[in-house]
Each structure stands twice: as structure tokens, then as C-alpha cells.
Design goal:
heterodimer, A: mainly alpha, MetI-like fold, 12 helices, 69% helix, globular, B: mainly alpha, 2 domains, cell membrane (chain B), phosphate transmembrane transporter activity (chain B)
Amino acid sequence: MEKIFSRLSWFSATTVLLVLLATLYVLYVQAKPAIDAYGWKFILDPRWGVEVAIDEQGREIPRDEFFHTEENAAGSMVLDEDGIPMEDETETGQADLERNAEAGVTIKEIYGGLVPIVGSVLSTLIAMAFSIPIAMGIAVFLSEISIEALKTPVGVAIELLAAIPSIIYGMWGLFFFGPFIASIFGGSSVSLLVAGLVLGVMVIPFMAALSRDAINTTPDVLKESAYAVGATRFEVVKDIIFPYAKTGILGSIIISLGRALGETMAVAFVIGGVYQLAEHVTDPTISIPVALANNFAESSGLSLAALYYLAFILFVVSFVIIFLAKEFLLRRAKV
Amino acid sequence: MNLQNRRLFYNRVFSVLSIGTALLGLIFLGWIIVTLVIKGTEAMSLDLFTTDLINNGLRNLLWGQFVLSILATVLAIPIGMLAGIWLQEYGNHTKFATFIRDLSDVMMSAPSIVIGTFVYAILVVPVGHANGWAGIVALAILMLPIVVRTTDDMLGLIPRELREAGVALGIPKYRIILDIIIRGAKVGIMTGLLLAFARIVGETAPLLYTSGTSQYWTTNLNETFPSLTVSIYNLATHPQEEMVKLGWAGALILAVFVLALNIIGRYLVRKKH
């Protein structure tokens, strides 16, 4: 009996490892066609769902050169309702393709990951730039400035807000915050900027609660000594609390960053879902999780593999960020 | 400006900035809550709880979300708790345990949509269509690391002497764990499980294409299963005003439920101390 129990519990612990390995493996296998087809250049290619011609040596024939005879037919692009560029396949275009196939030219669909990757990175950066000062303000306010009577209720409210499902932040962003931001900065009410800010608002409670806990670990003796030699509150926070709680605060920022990077629902409503690099922050674009959420179910073949490629990248990146953060911060904490 | 005035000035600026940012943050968060309550209560009625989505109600969605989350919990708890027990009681301080602990923490931050794509590949593609089981597995995978962490942490709080007392009585180790250690950590573990449940109940991304959602009442997990969160996502972008209102009502119910679970969890913790 004892043996069964210990075996069972060991096996359960190993399940965690197995699930993780299985996820990595399945994502990799599913992404394999796209990895084979595009290689690492995938992450630098801004095109999504564009057909290009490949000559016998496997080189791409520039678009205008290939389609020069059929400018009007095959060269015109239309956007379908999801904003994915679709080829206008007319009969003359088809004839053109067949003629080229005889000459050793093949048609290849290109899916590049640059747009979602840039969208993810930029929206996360905006979110961090927006949320870090506010979350730090709340954390310092809660631990140092506020009167006692406010600390608990505000603190509890912040923690409860961190538990609200992200889809609610998304809905609020779509119906209220997006139009509000658009009325200030111009542009569309779904944009990179709105997505970043909604993400920021979403991680504020989480980051603030974790940072406050880190700040609260500073021993009172240290603070009191500083006050005793005449330090102002600002100097205590700057020179005593922040250096002491540095690792904890950094940790809270990095975990929040991981959350923002992988967040789907808060962003899906407000980023626009268009495969297009944002020229201005007020332009709509797309991020990796939103690409997965919007296009996964109706994709197949290479486009599905490309989405898995994106999922694989996202998984590995967030894995590495959290793992490095843990290692780095733990090592710092030990010193 | 002399040194003292400058220091006082900086201090003043800092205090104002800190209070200002704190206020700004609270204003945003208050704004969300107020809109949620106003928009949600506008569409709220008792009929929502007695009719299905096909008749502009939410009954089947609430049921579906609840079933998916409960079954995911049933799946994740035994595995997660046993894993936590192994980490703390058997493998503690070994390299492998540290490794699993780290992995589990990392998995806790894994993007939930990626878990959805993984489950889609293994459970939806072979079946050919979205099904309730896939949704359950996706939620369970999300919940697993939280359960592991909770159990691990709570067992770690049990004093060594209790274990030694058990050993001295000649009780086999698994009975020590089940009868002494788990019993001692019961409240903490229950609270952690409650909070873990609260966290997966509001998940949308992993359900999008695993369970999908349905307009009808169903108890058949082999078919597309109704999910409140996925339906809220669809309803919110629906062109009809009525449907959007229904989405807000669903969002309010979900938020109230999740917050209630969190408050109960908090209350349990406080009662213990």
C-alpha cells in the first residue's frame, strides 16, 4: 500500500513534466510543415496568406514581374471580412498560373509571423510602460502613504480586481475605453494603443498586489532607522525600500509581463485582428494570441501549421522569460 | 532653494505623484466595475436563468461553464495534490523535485491559448469536432500547476514534529500523510483549490476551439458544449443590440460568481488565523 501510494504520487509529479513535454512536442510536430517551409525567416516575414511564385531554383519571383500580364486579374487584392488578403481568382488568373506551372514555376502560399510577433511585443511594451508607474504608485501608496483605515479595503479591492476574468476587461475596452482613447488620440477605437492600454489596466491590480507584498517585507527597523536620521518619505522609499524589495518588485513586473504577452481575451476585442504592421500606434494590428483565437478554427494545412508555429514561439518565449526570471531572481535573492 | 527645501520639495512631489497614480489606477478599475454593474443589471432578469441561449437566455451557458469547470477540477485535483505531496513528502530537496517545482511554476504562467491549441491537436482533431471533454482537459491542464503549488506550499507549513510523532507511532508513511499532514493543512488546501477553481471558471481562451459553445441545453460531453465565456465573446461582437446586452448580463454573473468565490476563500483564510 505504501509502495502504491508513493509510486502514484511520483507518477503524478512526473505528469507535470509529461504534460509540458507533450505540449512542446505536439506544438512542434504540428508546426513542422511551416517550419520546413519557411524556416527561421518566418519571424521576419510580414506577409500572411500571400501567394508567391517560385522558380525552379526555389527563388521567389517578384510579384510585379510574375503577374505583369494579368495585373488586373491576379494582381488585385481584396480583403475578406477577417482582414486576410485573399487572391482574386479569375479564370484568366488561373490560366496564367497553369502556363507558368509548365515553365517550372510553382505557387507557394507564404505565411510570415512578423506582424503578430511585432503586435505582441509592442502591445506588451505599451502595457508595461503604462502599468509599471501606476502599479508602483498603488503599491507605495498602500504600504507607506495611505492611512491605516484605507490600507485593508483598498488592498483587498485591488486583489479582487486581479481575479476578474480578462474577457470583462476586453468588453470594457471594446465598448468604453477604446472609443475614449480614440477621442483623445484620434484613429480607430480598435488599435495597438488601445490593446496595450487595456492590457496595462488588466495587469495593474496583479502587479500592484505583488509589489505591495514585496515592499511590505522590508523590515520596519530599517525604515525607522532611516526616518530617525531625518530621511524624508521619498528618500526612505528610494534608498531603503526599493533596494531592499528590488528582486520582489522585478519579479512582479516580469510575471505581469508574461501574463500580458500571453493574454488573449483582453486584447482580442480591441486590437483589430488585421494582419498589418501598425504604422502609427493608433492603427489596428494583431498579436499572436489573437491570431490564434481568430483564425485557428477555420485554418487548415499550411496556415494552421503557421499558427502552430506562432503558438510554439509564444510558448517557448514565455517559458524562457519566466524560467530565466526565476533563475536570475532566485540567484540574486540568495546573495 | 537650499538643501532642506529641495528635499522637502522632492518629497512633496513624490507623495503627490504616488497618490495621483494610485488614484488614476483606482479610477480605471472603478470605471470597469461601474460599467459592468450598470450594463449587466440593465439586461438582468430572472428569465435569463430559465431559458437557453437559443431563446435569449443564459441557462445552458451557466450550466455548461459550471460542468466544464467542475469536471476539470475533479480531474486536476487528485493528480495535482498527489504531485504536491510527492514534492513535499517524498522528493523534497532532490534535484528532480526542484526541477518539477520550477516547471510547475513556469506552467502556471503559460499562455492559456497555447494550452488550447495543444488540446485541439490531441483531442479535437481526432474526433473531428469540438467537444466537452477537450474543454475539460484544457481547463484541467491550466489548473494542475496551481493545485501542485498550493498543496506543496500548504504541506510545507506543517511542522516537522507532527511527522516525527507519526513515525514514532509506527504508522506507515502514506497514513501519516493522509491522516496527519493533509488533515492539518486542510483549510489551506481547500482555500487554494477554491481560488484555483475561481481562476479557471472565468477562462475563455482555452475553450474557444476545444469545447466551443452551443446555443442549446446539453449533457452530452461528446458534442460541442455550451460555455458562458466563449458565448460572451461571441455575444459582445454580435451586431444585434439585444445580444450584446445578454453578453453584459453574462459577464456580470461571471464576475459576481468569481468574486464571491474569492471572498469566501479570503474569509476561510482569515478564520484560520
